[in-house]
Amino acid sequence: MFQLFLRARTQSFLRDRFRGEQAFRARSPERDAETDRTRIEAIMLAIESALHAAELEQSGLNRRVEDVLARAAVTFGNGDDEYLEREPLDSHHHDLFDKEILNGQRRLKELTASIAHFKFLKAAMLSRFPEYRPPSGSTN
Questions:
Q1: Which domain of life is it from (predicted)?
Q2: Between the CA of residue 110 and those of 51, 101, 107, what are the distances in Å?
Q3: What is the pLDDT confidence band of residue 137, given thresholds at 50, 70 and 90?
Q4: Secondary structure of 8-39 in the HEC alphabet?
Q5: Is the whole model's pTM more than 0.70, yes or no?
């Protein structure tokens, strides 16, 4: 009896296979919603991570640029003719300070723009997916 049942199922399976007929099955709405939420969460986590990293870099770089500005101010002196009597080594250090300051300020501008872009992306994501709620413990 079991062999008859197995033979009938096998024939039915093979017949459907060769004809290309397969039953269409869709996932449940709950599973679809969970899949969508997982995708949105992955994007939001990437945006949050990039935003946090950029803000940390900006904070650290801002402190370092301020430090270099303070050191440069001390070494420049405050005399009117300071540049006339300056040692060549001091001039070299001033040039290095200038390069560091310019590079730091350039990067700070880039970071400010990047942070604004990341915040825009976050706002756009939240406006396009208003049903998204970040996991508990995450700041929004």
A1: Bacteria
A2: 13, 14, 5
A3: low
A4: HHHHHHHHHHHHCCCCCCCCCHHHHHHHHHHH
A5: no
